[in-house]
Design brief:
single chain, two-stranded antiparallel ribbon, 14% helix, 26% strand, Translesion error-prone DNA polymerase V autoproteolytic subunit, nucleotidyltransferase, EC 2.7.7.7, DNA-directed DNA polymerase activity
Length: 208
Amino acid sequence: MNDNDLKKIGGKRPGAGRKSGSGPYMEPTTVIRVPISQKATVSDLLAAYAKKQRISHLKENLDSVEAFDLPALTPVSVSIPLYQSKVPAGFPSPADDHVEKRLDPNAYLIDQADSTFFVTIQGESMIEAGLMPGDKAVVDKSKLPVVGDIVLAMIDGEFTIKTLAKQKDGNPKLLPANSSGKYTPIIIQVPMQFEIWGVVISSFRRFR
């Protein structure tokens, strides 16, 4: 065995190990010794610091939602003509023989009023799913979320709307719908606090 063979044995391989700054504290760490009596206190302090770092890192990929609203307790039924004309733009003929049926917007947007609420979209992470800043997303908390659904999720106390997906190990991840590269998938892992509050079933916006 020559010197070159010896150099190939042992030692750190290039690229091996955890990427610097990817641990729970999002930065390089070092080993310290602490008094046994203070171990619990130091652990709690570090846990709080790790959570703060995670939230700071998450906010780079989160479009937090705002203005949680509930539907009216007694929504008024509104019946509006729904025309058969399938034109890209313009106003369909008002002739009676073009009316397909009458549509109630409340019934169309909402499945179950008692389990539904509205949130206002912020940011542009879901624009390719048709959710633009200022849109009202209709969230139904009674729906069972499945992979591919757009969901309202809470991560470490921060709300966001993303598409639900799964990692290779079966744990969830949240995907943006914006190909600009500004937003990256959010990988859910321990010790993140993660909860899905509801499934986005529709949305609407006002132009004037």
